[in-house]
Design the sequence.
């Protein structure tokens, strides 16, 4: 399975669907779902897009990660 879409050369991400019991690959640019054989199954619906955006917003609101300064350790063997 190539990680890039053959239509627009955009990045694909795996999306697991419980109803289909399988993984479909979603392209970020053209919003098409493909299977593991690189065949376009369907386009992402507007309702699915709003659900994903709502989940991302909810995660951003509820996640509270402390802002730590990243520093390189010194004296590591």
Sequence:
């Amino acid at each position: 399975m190539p990680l890039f879409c053959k239509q627009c050369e955009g990045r694909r991400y795996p999306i697991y669907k419980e109803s289909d019991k399988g993984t479909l690959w979603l392209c970020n640019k053209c919003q098409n779902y493909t299977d593991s054989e690189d065949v376009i199954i369907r386009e992402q619906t507007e309702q699915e897009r709003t659900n994903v955006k709502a989940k991302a917003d909810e995660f951003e609101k509820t996640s509270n990660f402390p802002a730590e300064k990243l520093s390189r350790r010194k004296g590591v063997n």
Q: What stands out?
A: Strands lie at 12-17, 22-27, 32-34, 40-43. The two ends are 40 Å apart (CA to CA).
